Structures are given as structure tokens and as C-alpha cells.
Amino acid sequence: MVDEARTDFPLHDSAASIADGCLGVVGNLLVRPRRDCPRVLVLFNGAINEHKILPMNFQRWTWAEDFDATIVSASDTLVSPETGLSLGWYHGGAQDFATTTLRPIADALDALGLGDAQRICFGSSAGGFAAVMASILGWSDLSIAINPQTDITRYHDAGRLPFLAQIGVDPEAVSPEAAKRLSLCAALEGNTAGGKVVIFQNRFDNHHFTRHFLPLVDAVADLPEARRRDFSLRLTADREAGHSPPNRAATLAMIREAAPELLA
């Protein structure tokens, strides 16, 4: 599933110089353009193997061939050998998700002449958090997530505490402002417009089902009816998998269910 351990992608100053069908890195983005296609798929990482953390990390980049879309794989700016973090949820630290990740993606799309293309985001676990946040912020037209964290403050201590220390947030005193960046549920408060969201949650991923999925179900239920219709929250049942993401074929089947136009 993870393909992050590669460092020899060609580097470009602008996405405009990356040829269609080729892979190239611009900033913290790995891009495979398809200028003739009106869709863009943004891939967000889950946890990076702590023994394989690189300055830039890209998961599922080998899957580009499966999709009829321009592919953008985003490396989390908080996950690096310097921070030692394997999870950063694309929080952005002193800046924010929109500044560190979404704006550079938009700039790359503009350079490719795809500023008006349909934007679809995908991720599992921490990547799912980022994908859904992109729709809440109205940046993504559709986000697809598998077993996402929905509230970082509810995550396991081993991943949560080093991350909160890195961004300077006291886990015992999270301000309302900080909460809106750390919790999809908090970010949804007062949310009346944004992109569509499809979440696949494994019922046998007990931690994420009880601590993350069910609170999000409640948060969505509190939304105005028109906004509530943008969310499709779907349960799966794989006792053996637990939180582990499905294999490539099963993941692609979920993506096809949510966005059939994406598959090549």
C-alpha cells in the first residue's frame, strides 16, 4: 500500500514543465498531469513507517495508472526526519492546512491550466482527516475517506502527544480556535456549504468506529438538512482488517463506488 520510499523523482520549479503522463515533484507535491482530463485526484498520506521517514513522503504514487485524472500526491510538511513525526494530519503547524497544502496544490493546478477542474481528495486514516477537511473548507468538490480520524485529540497517545507538542498545543487545554483545526466535528460547527464527503468506516476498527466515526455522525446530524445531504457515511465489516486500509483492489472498488468517473 505505501510507496513513500523513493527520492529520485524529477524536480521542477513549476508544474507547467511536467509532461502529461510523467511524474514530477514541485515543492511538497508529486504531480502526474493529465491536461486533457477535467478531474484532479489529490492523495493524502496516512502514517509513514517511522523507519522510512524521508524529507518528502508520497504514498500510493504507483496507483496513478489506475486513474483517469491528474494525480497530485501531497507530502505532509510536518512529517520529516527533523520532526520525527510519522503523523501530521496536514495540520501545517504555525501556518495552516490551507496555506501549507491546499494553496500549493491550487497553484500547481493553475500552472497546468486545470484551475477549474473537478477536485477530488482521497485518504485513509490521517489522510482521510485531511481529505474531509478539504471538503469542509469548500476546497474539494468531493472527498473520499477510509477509517479516518475525525478528532486528533481523541487519537492514541503515541501519535497524538508528540504531534501536539510539535505544534505547541497543550493536550489538556485545547482552545476552541485550535479545536477547529484538530477536529472535523468542531470544524463542522456552523458549516453550511462545502464539498461532498463519502466515508467508509470499518465497524471492526473499534477505536475509530467509537471515538471518531460516531461523533462525526452526530456532528453531521446537527447540520442544516441541505448540508447534511452532502455526507454519505457508510459502514463496512472486515473483522480481520481492523484499522488496516483495504488492499489496492478493495480500495479502488470503494473509490469506484464513490466516484466511478475516476477509474481509468
TrEMBL record:
It comes from the Bacteria. InterPro entries: AB_hydrolase_fold. Gene3D superfamilies: alpha/beta hydrolase (3.40.50.1820). This is Peptidase S9 prolyl oligopeptidase catalytic domain-containing protein. It comes from Sphingomonas hengshuiensis.
